[in-house]
Amino acid sequence: MSNIGKILDELYDVVLDRQANPKEGSYTNYLLNKGIDKICKKVGEESAEVIIAAKNKSRSEVIYEASDLLYHLNVLLVEQGVTLDDIYEELKKRR
Fold first, then answer.
1. What is the rounded CA–CA span in Å between residue 35 and residue 16?
2. Number of domains in the chain
């Protein structure tokens, strides 16, 4: 079993904390302050970069860009009030 759940939980908690306790110079706060349009734009950009990395057959690029995508997706989830448990439950239903 992978350990990704642990780091995703940590990442989600950091984004939640930034939302509740903004920090000067925080990129997360920059995104949250810019709002849903900016966050969605970043999710789209990172999705495209994952696709390009995969098409280039660059494992290291896929890892890097997928990590960026997961970060930006977490920002989107927090902004929308969606928890990782909500996603877990949806995925569980699909099994």
1. 15
2. 1
